[in-house]
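Hi Y.,

Following your request, here is the sequence exactly as I used it, all 321 residues.
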Amino acid sequence: MKRRVLLSRSLALAACASPAVWAQSFPQRPIRVVIGFPPGGGIDILARLMAPKLSESLGQSVLIDNKPGANGVLGMDIVAKSAPDGHTILLGTLGNFSVNPALYPNLPYQNSQFAPLTLLAAVSFVLFVNPSLPWRNLNDLITAGKSKPGSLNFGSSGSGGLPHLAGEMFAKATGLSMTHVPYKGSALSINDVMSGQLQMTFEAAAAGIQHVKTGRLKALASLGPQRWSVLPDVPAANEVVPGFEVVNWYGMACPAGTPTETLNKLHDHIQRAMAQADVREKMNGMGLDSVGSTPDDFGRFWASETQKWGKVIKDAKITAG
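Below is the corresponding structure, written out as tokens. Let me know if you'd prefer a different format.
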């Protein structure tokens, strides 16, 4: 009888334990990292690069769970509705976090259903042009576009993607009239720039850098806050167009309600994993810069990016392709 009473009391105490108590013993089982895209892409490669390091640091398996669908919406919805215990994490892109809310007004979740965890990596973007064009620099491009309004075109990976948004933002910032040509994927857009069917594309650096080295593409400007270290002689666009910056990024979030102690513990272990030299070396080869931020800092950045790209989408009247 005493054993039964003691067991009942133990169960009652466990049921009443606060999230902080559970957080102290976190993690209790394998961690699932959900990605809203199929295997093989840049974000998937990064996840699989990070996973063994994070697993070693946490002392638990880290499983990558690809849930492609609706431009990452399916993966985000799964995480939004998961238990807020830190065992399910979203690894998403700028598009998932800050573009989709403006493109898709009827999302099955709200950003408020997520707890920011960390900004993980930044993806360098470059303005690539056909090398046969006479433009020596960004000023030449702008001058050419203003002298013949409507003569410029740019390709993208599809309507509503970051290459499309970058082109629209550039057109507005410079006062140029540019024709957008959407493709089903970045590779097709880049191929037509190389062949001369298109004049330019705003793309992830890694997508075109090899073609720059072979002379099939020309890098006219890097689009980050400063010059890209791989192409130090290529000016940053904001040297000519103040305030114009385009950087894709990857971030991580948990379901809202995840204990602060758990978020902080995950954050610390993720930063430890990403700081390892071999991880950083491989990221550099992919055109990625490792970025560390606290959950609060990432939350503020996420909000500012949502406002920034929401305005671009609204001003250009962009709809999802």
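The radius of gyration is 22 Å.

Thanks again,
Q.
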